[in-house]
Design a protein that fits this description.
This protein is an alpha/beta fold. Helix content is 27%, strand content 34%. It has two domains: 177 residues, Vaccinia Virus protein VP39 (Rossmann fold); 56 residues, S-adenosyl-L-methionine-dependent methyltransferases (N-terminal domain of TfIIb), CATH 2.20.25. It is globular. The protein starts with 10 loop residues before the first helix and ends with a strand.
């Protein structure tokens, strides 16, 4: 079972605790720091389109790109009733990003970068983002830290509501530098429960690795921030945000 095939229809229910509005507020704080106004935004690995729809409702023109057609089907349905200009959604992987024009900013949130487990593919994705940014454009993304991913080894997590029961199990591989999350998903169908399984994998990237990839892609003014903070990350951070700019 491919990642998100079964999860997509219930993803929003299982991630109801994510404060997307606060994430959008944080993104906009970085937008306001830009010398040039941000009007067009690429939401890379947009998933079910929640962030795309929130930012569209705040007046931005959004393009959402994701490799999962199942997640994008949910995003398209969600966008039907969203405020603002309806986002445009594209089924594309990061390293094969191909837009019709350029954007003022690109965001890639909720540790989506960690899901690109091959460094060569991620380096290519950064080059594609650079290509479709306007000069002076902003690239903003976050990653789970290696410390966080290592700490998931052997951990079990449970998400549930009345009709969905999801069990996650973490397994860390030091050799592959990846954390595999095996998922058992139980969906209620009338009086019975249907069980499916998915597997998700995240790679632990050191901040220095990511900075090197960004520099080699052509980005400048690369900065690190703590989790939804406007200052440098401190010891023990579980998530780090990066900003980088395309030269003007």
């Amino acid at each position: 079972m491919s990642a998100y095939e079964t999860l997509a229809p219930v993803y929003d229910r299982l991630t109801a605790d994510v404060d997307y509005a606060a994430w959008a507020d944080y993104v906009e704080r970085h937008f306001r720091r830009q010398k040039r106004p941000v009007r067009t935004v690429l939401d890379l690995a947009c998933g079910t389109g929640t962030m795309s729809c929130i930012l569209a409702g705040r007046g931005y023109e959004l393009i959402g790109a994701d490799a999962s057609s199942d997640m994008l089907a949910v995003a398209e349905e969600k966008a039907r009733t969203a405020a603002g200009v309806r986002p445009v959604f594209l089924c594309q992987s990061m390293e094969r990003l191909d837009l019709y024009g350029t954007v003022d900013a690109c965001i890639c949130l909720l540790d989506s970068v960690n899901y690109v487990t091959e460094p060569a593919r991620l380096a290519k994705a950064f080059r594609r983002v650079w290509l479709f940014l306007e000069p002076g454009g902003l690239f903003l993304f976050d990653v789970d830290t290696p410390e966080k991913l290592r700490s998931l080894d052997g951990q079990v997590f449970l998400d549930e509501d009345d009709d969905v029961f999801c069990l996650w199990r973490g397994a860390w591989s030091e050799k592959r530098r990846c954390c595999t999350l095996g998922m058992d998903l139980f969906l209620r169908q009338g009086e019975i429960w249907r069980r499916t399984q998915e597997e998700h994998r995240e790679r632990a990237y050191e901040p220095e690795e990511l900075e090197t990839m960004l520099t080699e892609a052509g980005f400048v003014r690369i900065r690190r921030y703590g989790e939804r903070k406007m200052r440098a990350p401190g010891p023990g951070e579980q998530r780090i945000f990066f900003t980088a700019q395309k030269p003007e």
